Predict the structure.
Amino acid sequence: MDVMHLFGISISMILINNFVLSKFIGLCPVLGVSKKLDSAIGTGLAMIFVMAITSLFTWIVNEYLLKKWEIEYLQTIVFILIIAALVQFVEMFLQKNFPGLYKALGIYLPLITTNCAVLGVAVLNVSEAYNFIESMVQGISGGIGFMLALILMAGVRERLEFSKIPKVLEGAPIAFIAAGLMAIAFLGFTGLKI
Amino acid sequence: MTDPVLIASLLTNVGIAILLGILLAFASKKFSMAVDPQVAKVIAEVIGAEEVESQEPVMAAVHCKGGDKEAAKKFHYEGIHDCRAAVLVADGNKECAWGCLGMGSCMEACPFEAIVIHNGVAVVNPKKCTGCGQCVEICPKNIIQLMPASAKIFLACSNHDLGAKIKRYCEVGCTACGLCVKTTPSGAIEMKDFLPVLDYSKEENFVTAAYKCPQNCYMDIVAKRPKVSIDQKCNGCTECLKICPVPGSIEGRPNEVHKVVFPKCIGCGRCIPVCPAKAINLMGALGYRKK
């Protein structure tokens, strides 16, 4: 496999086509969980994990079930079913076998089960017609990009706590403004060529 | 109706949904765990201890009731108002070497404010005590002990001296006369080193022992004990009369329905199992029936 090609995919998902700051998909956790750095990191890690296994299973189902019987139009519904069941299964598995890991990111798993970004990764894999390795790389990088955006937001919001902000803008308004400014900053990556 | 799209979508969706449902059901069974054991196991792992089964709740009790009125003092103590300091001066200012000094170290140590100093001795409030054991550790005389929370009577004396000596310096000190041991046929009280030791694992409420003690050494947490009452089923066999430890608390001639003199009854409950007609019941202190 062409490593540069895979590297290109991952850079694209992390910086150029960042889910949160470039595509604006899956924004709920970004504004909900980003108040504290710890929860942001937890959610980010959970997101990487979920996106990875989602890419894995949805690619398999798409390749060997939907394509074979030519029912690709069912992708959306079937993907959602798989993602929801999978995340539940993983949560149960973690709770029993890896209590430490469960403590770190287990509570965030139900929160991101039906996050648009997770379905977005699955659909993106299909639309770009990636093979297995490429899908996995895209999934994991999408998660890393999501975590990057979350950590940046959390860092900025933690700093904002100690700044003088006009009363009308405190809380959600200033968070939105900050997110918008960050999105503009990420626009700078659009011309990046590998 | 036989549109291939419809059939295909129905089959796939329903099929996948059922499959995933079964998978999740299996998973929830396989990975199921009751929350409590996991918590106990994790805690045990974290603190490096072996897993402990849940125990019966315990309560602290101060084994001394010789206060300012009942117990004599050797000297007047003027110093740091703390039992641990007082005990360094000739083993405390109480005449009795095992007595509560009443300076309140246990009261300070209790995180739940369950101990008060009353009449110069420490008294545990059973409603607030959680059995944490802080007082047990801090008492310099080691006279606070933990006992099962369901036990309501304990021996409030830790004295290992013989009878004649104690009577000189404490009105409520145990003289090791052995009356409590004799009047408890279940053998739940044992005399060890001139001090009765109560065995709480036996089915014994110790009410008779507390009543019979001539020095009144026992402390009963229950303020008002339920009394017994005899109903009309009584056949006059006088078995209860024979076993009752309090003379005059049951009135009755043979072949006549017996009657309990409520003020005298101590509520020990010994008459209940011996009655062949099952005519005796405990009446709750509020007047309702108990088992």
